[in-house]
Design brief:
6-stranded parallel β-sheet; 49% helix; Rossmann fold; 7-stranded parallel β-sheet; 11% strand; alpha/beta; 731 residues; 35 helices; Arc Repressor Mutant, subunit A
């Protein structure tokens, strides 16, 4: 080591207590000490802040650090103050200070005590501050979170756009830009806007080998899936991200009801509650924080073991930043995202209100997220390629840490199709984005294609033997292998590379992975066991049906009166062995469980023991009873003999919806006496006739009853009579 190197190692030990630098830190610091413009691209958790803190502490004068988040500035100032006996070594200058505090800050800077001054970009636009800063020695200006300059960054702030002009007023000071966003487009934007094309650029690898990436189809049963996942990671810390505050609240509630210690965190909570919840998480008084995106900026909890995305994020940057909060200590980090195309459509609708330029960017970023979620190639390779980094999915570090690599999808030869695709990109002369290229292949016309007269070309429709989905998937995979590229200047336009042209001349095998089809049908699949569409235990189902028959016979009622089929199937799936657990079975309430339950749970209990069955006890997801307020209202007002039409309109329900609610109430074992209402529409003989039908019938299906009575009664009359029947006979 030369004397300079020895010097900065000594300072590192003295101030931070570390004996060596991490990654690129030392090279960055040397560049800053040489007063060169410097650009640092380092993933979250890579030690960016030390890169400017150390040189600031060593050098003459004050370093200005521009940062977008007041909370982050406070954290950093506190951290630096803890390294020194002097409180004035670091200060914040923003709108939250009083006149007296501002005077103190100026005094400390003038006396040479302050080494780091954190400012919000808005403060720098105030003339009085600029005038003051011109009068004192400045060592350099560091712009943290520099992606805020670029509208392609996930966190664009217009006030960042003007920084360059302000810095120029401070004289010739070196600029240090720092970001954790690595898309080439954003980097180019930052360098251009700060007018520092000559900057020394340092880019750390974005690979986090200890993170496991997984994307699951979002189903109706997402809550049970999340609860099961958390219970498999008992006692470990995790973050669940949702896009809306309402979702945050409801998921936090469901987790609490199911015995998981969780707190909500979003901007709608007052500052005191937010701080309290954040501290509870840091101090491990709770395991899980359910949050909107705002959470976790500057949270340095090293042992977050899982990050779950309940909703897919708006960009891959956000996704990378948020998943990056897992496993900062190098230990395990499981990143699980739930995906359904419906969510993407929601986000697109949400964007349609914005200015056109913003919309274009938003859509382009969202398409990348869709491509990531639907891809069947290595997710790590896909992510790193997005960030402009090559990754070898055979030998790279962490290569097997993703669901696609562990469960590879089916591959097919696509050599000929790749040639067709490359030729279309070449022959349409690099004017189209992926959508138009695919449309040209399948022969679909839109306004853009018409304007360029592409539909009159001989190659229009050469790929019509495959569908749009196939070509989109192939296009993505060809992009990642580098035969095509996306132009940075005109974001999204596809160009052919030199390798692509070589491929056309001399095609080689190209094995294409078939993408997972995320169809509407997937949304219906109910995930109950570890696999989707949990199937009930057929042997047990048979035994429970026998028992139901026996109990019904003894009571002289049809079997469906005791428990309906869906309830029997649910029992054979969840194996409830106490009356308490029976409450959570589909269509069984407390009344019903108490009345008929004991023989059923005794049977299940014996069966579980005899067959050594491992019960999925965490499958019983308790709901937070959102509908219970409705139910209570219905029960109370039927007791008061209020007309059903009034009850429905008071709760904003259609008659059909009200009857559904009433059916749920009686089928789970609560009595509803609606005779007062039925007496107005059916006379005693008619009621008796329908009652007798249900008593004799094998099934309680309304279709069967409609057939039997062949138009004598309408569907609502029969449904209401069935409610009365179940209420009297079963409950």
């Amino acid at each position: 080591m030369n004397s300079n190197e020895i010097e900065i190692h000594k300072e590192l030990k003295k101030y931070f207590g570390f004996s060596q630098f991490k990654g690129l830190q030392e090279q960055v610091i040397t560049s800053i000490l040489d007063e060169k413009n410097t650009f640092v691209i380092m993933p979250t958790g890579g030690g960016k802040s030390l890169c400017y803190q150390l040189p600031a502490l060593i050098q003459e004068g004050t370093a200005i650090v521009v940062s977008p988040l007041i909370a982050l500035m406070k954290n950093q100032v506190d951290a630096i103050r803890s390294l020194s006996s002097e409180n004035g070594i670091a200060h914040v200058l923003n709108s939250s200070l009083t006149k007296t505090e501002i005077a103190q800050v100026k005094k400390d800077i003038t006396s040479g005590l302050t080494k780091l001054l954190y400012v919000a970009p808005e403060s720098l636009t105030k003339e009085e501050y600029v005038a003051f800063l011109q009068s004192v020695p400045i060592s350099f200006v560091a712009i943290d979170e520099a992606h805020c300059i670029s509208e392609w960054g996930h966190d664009f702030r217009p006030e960042y756009r003007n920084l360059r002009n302000i810095i120029k007023q401070l004289g010739k000071v070196p600029i240090i830009g720092l970001t954790a966003t690595a898309t080439p487009k954003v980097q180019e934007d930052i360098l251009k806007n700060l007018d520092m094309a000559d900057a020394n650029t340092f880019k750390a690898s974005f690979n986090r080998p200890n993170l496991y990436y997984e994307v699951r189809t979002k189903t109706k049963n997402i809550e049970s899936d999340i609860i099961r996942f958390i219970k498999q990671h008992k006692g470990k810390s995790g973050i669940i991200y949702c896009l809306s505050r309402k979702k945050v609240e409801s998921i936090a509630e469901v987790l609490q009801v199911n015995g998981i210690s969780a707190v909500p965190y979003h901007a709608g909570l007052d500052a005191k509650t937010r701080a309290k919840h954040q501290d509870m998480f840091l101090m491990e008084d709770v395991d899980v924080v359910v949050a909107t995106i705002a959470f976790g900026m500057g949270i340095d909890k090293p042992d977050v073991r899982f990050v779950i995305h309940h909703d897919i994020p708006k960009s891959l940057e956000s996704y990378y930043q948020e998943t990056g909060r897992a496993g900062r200590d190098g230990g395990e980090g499981h990143c699980l995202a739930y995906y359904s195309y419906k969510d993407v459509e929601k986000l697109e609708k949400f964007m349609s209100g914005k200015p056109v330029a913003e919309q274009e960017i938003g859509f382009a970023l969202l398409q990348e997220v869709v491509a990531y979620a639907e891809t069947s190639m290595s997710r790590r390779k896909f992510l790193l390629h997005y960030f402009g980094e090559e990754f070898d999915s055979e030998t790279g570090e962490g290569a097997d840490m993703d669901d696609n690599v562990r469960n590879p999808k089916h591959k097919v030869e696509a050599k000929e199709q790749v040639v067709k695709l490359l030729e279309i990109v070449r022959d349409t002369k690099h004017i189209y984005k992926s959508k138009e290229i695919v449309f040209t292949l399948i022969g679909r016309i839109n306004a853009v294609i018409k304007a360029h007269k592409t539909d009159t070309q001989p190659y229009f429709g050469v790929g019509s033997d495959h569908d749009e989905k196939y070509w989109m998937a192939l296009l993505r995979q060809v992009l990642v292998t580098g035969l095509l590229s996306k132009d940075i200047e005109t974001y999204g336009v596809i160009k052919i590379t030199k390798e692509g042209l070589d491929f056309i001349k001399k095609p080689v095998s190209f094995m294409m992975s078939e993408d997972h089809e995320y169809s509407e049908a997937d949304d219906e699949t109910i995930v109950t066991g570890g696999k989707s569409s949990g199937t009930a235990d057929e042997v047990l189902t048979g035994m429970l049906r026998e028992l139901r028959k026996k109990v019904a016979k003894k009571l002289g009622v049809p079997p469906f009166v005791v428990f309906q089929d869906p309830s029997i199937e649910d029992m054979a799936l969840k194996y409830p062995i106490t009356i308490q657990e029976l409450y959570n079975i589909h269509g069984v309430g407390e009344g019903k469980a108490k009345k008929y339950g004991s023989e059923f749970v005794a049977l299940i209990s014996r069966y579980v023991e005899d067959n050594d069955i491992i019960r999925p006890d965490d499958l019983v997801v308790k709901s937070t009873g959102v509908n219970s307020a409705n139910k209570l209202y219905i029960i109370q007002n039927i007791d008061r003999k209020l007309p059903l039409s009034d009850i429905a309109s008071a709760k904003g329900l259609s008659m059909d919806a009200l009857i559904k609610e009433m059916e749920q109430i009686v089928y789970s074992g609560t009595k509803l006496n609606i005779k007062y209402w039925l007496d107005d529409i059916l006379d005693d003989d008619q009621q008796e006739e329908i009652h007798d039908y249900f008593m004799e019938s094998e099934s309680d299906k309304i279709e069967d009853a409609l057939k039997e009575f062949d138009g004598d009664y309408d569907i609502d009359e029969l449904r209401l009579m069935r409610i009365k029947f179940i209420s009297e006979v079963a409950n």
